[in-house]
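Ticket #4471: structure export looks truncated?
Reporter: QA, pipeline team
Priority: medium

Steps to reproduce: submit the single chain below to the structure queue and open the exported record.
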Amino acid sequence: MLSISPEEILFTVAPHLWGEDQVEAETRMAIVEKLANFDGLTLQAILRFLHHLKTKETDEGGNGYDGAAPAAPLFTSVVHGAKRE
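Actual output as written to the record:
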């Protein structure tokens, strides 16, 4: 069995698919590697948090990307909520 993920193979041969520049590509790959080590409950909490973030695309209200700022206060409650489930 190989000890390398499909993501690592793809990143090695085509890092440009992971981001607009090298820093963004490396950041995305680091996030993927980190996520692979979390347990199921933690992954569920992270996913709930991510659902609250606005993306680069425009949302239904016509608002553009603001990053994590609107969802940051939710992060603590999402993570703690997952631990109680």
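Status: closed, not a bug. The export was complete when the record was re-opened. Leaving a note from the reviewer for reference: DSSP finds four helices and no strands in the chain.
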